[in-house]
Every structure is written in structure tokens, then in C-alpha cells.
Amino acid sequence: MRKLVFAPYDPSRDEEAKELFAFYPHKDFQLLSMGVQKDRMAHYLAGTLADPNTQSICLRDNGRLMGLIALQALPWMSQHFGLRMYAVRHLLSRSDGPLEHARLLRFVMEELPEVDFLDCRVAVDDIYSAHALELCGFRYVGTEVFMGRHLANDVAPSLPAGIELDFCRPSERQEVLDIVEATHVHNRFAYDPMIHTAIAKSLYCRLVENCFRTDQFGVMVARSRKGVEGFITFKTSENFSRTVGIRAASLDFIGVRPERRNKGLGVALNHAALSHLGQNGAEFAAVRTLASNYPALQILSRSGFKVTSSSLHFHKWIHRPKSTARNVQPESANILKLAKSGGDSSTNYRQATGH
């Protein structure tokens, strides 16, 4: 007889978690493309369950680990939106159907009152997880494409006359943020009808602004006499690199002024960042973008990137009773829109302000 119980993750039994991660087949081609052994990746992923800002819940059948869900707190995004937001970092199950995935999701939604919002991405061929998210009322907000390439001696492309590539100066940061506001229309928050467009744009400004505040990120710009014409942010992944045995990095955000597009600046910025990363020891670079962002896909393809996997992205706004005692206070009374379509649980969602 099955005896399913929920329990907190026990780090002393991490071999079970490694086995569950190794059982997951939907990212195998990505690992093959990177040159990463699956057992090393499973070791890295199991280690993330013990991160201080991650809460992991296990589903056990007579003591055997059958599935788990891991939530990663998103503190600054919570402050930005005025809601308690979490990312579903892992959603795994041994089952041959979506019901155990759904049980894990419903446990979080029903038993953890501190959760207002869940952000979840699953591999595009992870059908059971996708079905479970649909069963639990999650809203599809886009498909992400993951791309990667090994780094070699990149030859910098020719630049338009009057353009130079260099690291961003403190005095140029506002110009970079102005470009973000004018360019970043392809993002999952912009595709979520519960969120005002202005708030989605301000979120991406905040993301890029955060890159200025840590040495983990690099920010390069394309500069002309008129000022900054484009930018790119990138970072190295030291902990991941140590665990999986390959020096990995990523390109994160890129933007070019609308009037300077289709002139080779995007490709030039990509190659400049890749060249810098390669010179500093990186062996592999990854990037992700929405599948609907065709200009970015074209630029990345011209920069030598190839598709390694894709993921479906879902949001869930969880209806909670109105509360005046939350630790997080909304920055705006108009952050969320009320969805107008019928038959969706989000139509019952109300803002913390009570409007």
C-alpha cells in the first residue's frame, strides 16, 4: 500500500536527490552540448537544495523519495511588486503522470501562506510537469530558448564608423537604463496580462541596474560621439564551474537604440563580451531569450550560438485574503491588472490595496 507523505528536505540523504536529478532526461542534449557529465550536474543541482534562500519539500512513498519541489525566494522582486514571490527552482517526480507533480504544487499553494506568486519554467518536452502546472491554474507566459557555444579566439567584427566598444563608465549608466526602457519588450512579465507594461519595463531596468552593483557582472557599451548606442551585460558562474568541471559564463542582457539597429552593433557587442570572457578563462558561454524574440535569435545565431534546449514559462498568482500586516509593502497601488477573461482563477485575484 502506498503511503505518501510530505517532508522537508534532509541534506543527509542527498544521494536520493542526486538520483532523482540524474533520472531527469529533458536536459540531456544541453549537457552534451556543454560537455558536462550528467552525474556532475546532478551533484551540482542537489547542492542547490541546501541554499539558504531555498525551501525544498519532498514527497515520499513509504520512505522512498518520489518527488520534490524547491522554492527560491525572490526578495528584491518581492519588494518591487509588493508581493511575496518565489521561483519554482526544481519540480521533479518519478511518476509516469502529472498527478504527483500537481500534489507538490498544490501543497505549496495550500500549505504555505507566505507564497503569493510562483514563477516556474519546465523543459518543453517535460509534458507531465507542464500538465501539472495547467491543472493547478498556472498561466503560460512564453517559451524560452537556451543557446550556447564553446569559446575560442573570437575575431572582432568590423564596427560602424565612429563606434568604440568599452566597459561602461559610471556616468553612462543612465543612458544604458534609457536603452533598456526603449528595447526590452520581449519578456515574460510583459506577456503576463496581470502586470502593467510600465511595471514590467521598470523591472528590467532594475535587473540591469543590479548588474552595476556587483563585480560578478560585466557591462560593456557601444559608444559614439553622441553617447551610448548599445550595451551588453555578462557574468561568470564560479560555483557552477567548479562543480561541473567547465569554466562557464553567460550573456544576460543586450540592447541597442532603435535607430541604430540592423547595423551590426548587436553582433559586435556579443563578440566583445565573448572575447573578454574567453581571455579570462571561460570555456563555454550560454544565453537565453524568448522564442518570440526573433531579432535576438538572429543575432545570437550570427554570433555562433546554437540552440541546446527550450523551456515553457508559467506564472501563478495565488489568491490570498486581504492582509494589512505583510512584511512587503507595494511600491504602487496599481501594480496588478485584473484579468478580464472568464473561467480563470486569476479573475478572482485582488490587489493588496483592496481595489
From TrEMBL:
<protein>
    <submittedName>
        <fullName>Acetyltransferase</fullName>
    </submittedName>
</protein>
<dbReference type="InterPro" id="IPR016181">
    <property type="entry name" value="Acyl_CoA_acyltransferase"/>
</dbReference>
<keyword id="KW-0808">Transferase</keyword>
<dbReference type="GO" id="GO:0016747">
    <property type="term" value="F:acyltransferase activity, transferring groups other than amino-acyl groups"/>
</dbReference>
<feature type="domain" description="N-acetyltransferase">
    <location>
        <begin position="163"/>
        <end position="329"/>
    </location>
</feature>
<dbReference type="Pfam" id="PF00583">
    <property type="entry name" value="Acetyltransf_1"/>
</dbReference>
<dbReference type="InterPro" id="IPR000182">
    <property type="entry name" value="GNAT_dom"/>
</dbReference>
